[in-house]
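We treat protein structure as text, and this decision shapes the records that our systems exchange. The tokens are whole numbers drawn from a learned vocabulary of local backbone shapes. Below, we set out a record of this kind in full and without editing:
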Amino acid sequence: MRILFTGGSGKAGRHAIAYLLAQGHRVVNVDLTPLDLPGVDNRIADMTDAGQMHDVMHAWAGYDEMDDHRSPPPVDAVVHFAAVPRLLMKSDNECYRINTIGTYNVIDAALKAGVRKVIFASSETTYGVCFAGGERKPEYLPIDEEHPVVPEDSYAMSKVAGEVTAQCFQRRTGADIYGLRINNVIEPHEYKANFPAYMADPDLRRRNIFAYIDARDLGQMVQCCLETDGLGYQIFNVANPDHSVNWPTTELIARYYQGVPARDMGPRETFYSIKKAREMLGFAPKHNWRMYLDDPREV
């Protein structure tokens, strides 16, 4: 496929693009900073500028395309990861502005260019736990896509607004638009760098609902979405099937989630359910933190 990928130079995007290139796709990375990765095409553009987004949807990926086409070939799918990636990076109102306007512009330009598959990054933060003032507990466990989205911060608000925007575009056009509520993204080097601290102090993982997703498995999730047509508008949680600390699930519930309704769960099962992605898309994460630590201290 010929894929336009926004935000591919970021932490999550660069690994997802590498995965997609390995599947044989042609990927144009649209970002403010180019991605130094063999095989990727780069285009510098600002997603908050509607004109730039409309232009990149109708542009050559590289000089080689000019040899075979009198005009640029169509984009087959758009993957939209570009965003201010978390709270406390820019002012709250600027974070909200960039993320909401950018998402509108990207989806609008894609659909007006005839693209029928859009995959966009939403966030675990929409459930209101991650960036809550003080401690907020889930309403039930594990958290699935039906759990209320109740954010109180500008970043998570922008992601909820993006989901509503995407749903409205899908209703009008009938295109397939899939949103990914991505959990804490872990790059390969971060297992040895960060996870020993998580083993020593599980409190460090509370705001992430003790969940995570390997950046390479996020690439697989995007591929699953590209391969699955006809679902209309959908939201999917994206996480590893196991939680991110070496405590049994029952002990985590006893310490952190007393009184929260919970179904029977496996000894290592994540509190961030990926049942929907597994059943509807065939999503099957391959990278577990226990594979990468010298002393995984399995439970």
Observations:
- Residues 2-187+212-241+272-287 form a domain with the Rossmann fold fold (CATH 3.40.50.720).
- The longest strand covers residues 117-123.
